[in-house]
Design brief:
Strand content: 25-35%
Keywords: NADP
Low-confidence stretches: none
CATH class of the largest domain: Alpha Beta
Largest sheet: 6 strands, mixed
Mean pLDDT: 96
Organism: Dactylosporangium maewongense
Number of helices: 9
Number of strands: 14
Shape: globular
Protein name: NADP-dependent oxidoreductase
């Protein structure tokens, strides 16, 4: 089968399409014919060598864990049938014509495979962060970077749970944020004052998905610095805020919540652009640019 692979860390040019043997599902696993693959910042950070030689532990590697597709083989004890349309997390590399999955949920019939492949990582991250914040119905949440994948997911989950959401983004994304239930404000210098104007009732909790030094502004808005959680600023604890990297536990159950909300017409995930595997380098570069609404997707 065709698969995307890299044998050394470095720029996007290290990515190549190669021929490899198709994987086989083990106990409790399924294999899918991959229809789409989602790109997350974590993927290109690993590829670039940002985390050194520890993640992944061995090269060469087939990247990407977020996938969608059609089940074509079922391992012993797995609760699935051949022909099921699913999305979730690949057990090994997902950027290939076939992938083994260790965690999956049913894809809503009306959801495209491309949109579904964009959900797993960002939905889990959003659900985990909102759980850490202890978000409750009636509270006001600020989402910094609300037009990125995690921000879009967190905004819609919070609105569905009865919270008011203020989302920071560039002006080109303000109308989109309004469409998913957020009050948009522009990020950058003076952001805290703009948020105060948009939320005269005050802010209860804040989620930073974009970094850029926003935590220092966000903690001036919440009752305590610990009411701010960042997914990207690992210096946040020096200011009294918190950071989550998933080591404290995952929130994969949020995938079912997002799928149910989609079926109700209350959840969406924009796809910025779709690339074939042969153009994976350009896809990584676009994701890394930071100027993306929603997700960048690969298709085998």
């Amino acid at each position: 089968m065709k698969a995307l692979r890299y044998s050394e860390y470095g720029p996007s040019s290290v990515l190549h399409v190669v021929d490899v043997d198709p994987p086989q599902p083990g106990p409790g696993q399924v294999r899918i014919a991959v229809r789409a693959v989602g790109i997350n910042p974590f993927d290109w950070k690993v590829r670039s060598g940002l985390f050194g030689d520890t993640t992944p532990t061995r090269l060469p590697v087939i990247p990407h864990g977020d996938v969608s597709g059609v089940v074509d083989a079922v391992g012993p004890g797995a609760d699935a049938q051949v022909g099921d349309e699913v999305f979730g997390l690949a057990a090994g590399g997902g950027a290939a014509e076939h992938a083994v999955m260790k965690l999956w949920v049913a894809k809503p019939a009306a959801m495209s495979f491309e949109e579904a492949a964009g959900l797993p990582g960002v939905v889990e991250s959003a659900g985990r962060a909102l759980a850490l914040l202890g978000l409750e119905k009636g509270q006001t949440l600020v989402v910094n970077g609300a037009a990125g994948g995690v921000g879009i997911a967190a905004t819609q989950l919070a609105v569905a749970r009865g919270a008011a959401v203020i989302g920071t983004a560039s002006e080109r994304n303000h109308e989109f944020l309004r469409s998913i239930g957020a009050i948009p404000v522009t990020y950058g210098e003076g952001m805290a004052d703009r948020i105060r104007a948009a939320a005269p009732q005050g802010v209860d909790v804040a989620l930073d998905t974009a970094g850029r030094g926003a935590v220092a502004q966000l903690i001036t808005l919440t009752p305590a610095p610990s009411d701010v959680v960042s997914l990207v600023d690992f210096d946040a604890p020096t200011l009294g805020a918190r950071v989550t990297d998933g080591s404290e536990g995952r929130a994969w159950q949020t995938l079912e919540e997002a799928a149910d909300l989609y079926r109700q017409g209350r959840f969406t995930m924009p796809v910025e652009r779709v690339f074939p595997l042969s153009e994976a380098a350009a896809a990584h570069d676009l994701s890394q640019s930071g100027h993306v609404r929603g997700k960048v997707i690969l298709v085998p």
